[in-house]
Amino acid sequence: MFSKTCEYAIRAIIFIALQSKEGKNVSIRDIAKGIDSPEHFIAKILQEMSRKGFVNSIKGPNGGFYMDKKTLKITIADIVSHFDGEKVFTACAIGLKQCSEAKPCPLHEQYKPIRKHINDMLRGAQIGNISEQLDIELAYLKLK
To answer: Where is the signal peptide, in residue numbers (predicted)?
Structure first.
């Protein structure tokens, strides 16, 4: 459903959030290893997420990436919108450019509630809440 870049961005931000709760700054190398990502690829993604304000970074020997109260409020939808655009929230089920209420595709009415559910779910999924669910084992995410 998401691009590989977006998937890595989501996994990386969750990994960083988990480490931040323990008061740790995490390096690109540790993130890449922790989410099973190529290091050079995740470095570009993290640079973009830092520039966008999704994560914070500190340079130096004890530096790395971390999240604070503000960044923990970022939602999965924020990340998806940034890396993959709004298409997941608005696209036609079969990829037509002109699908609309006035001129619906054959799956329009069946797909409309699914698209709304995905939209609501991703917009309500704050990174801080996801990391809390992982901490108390209400959810599971296999990280290396």
So the answer is: none
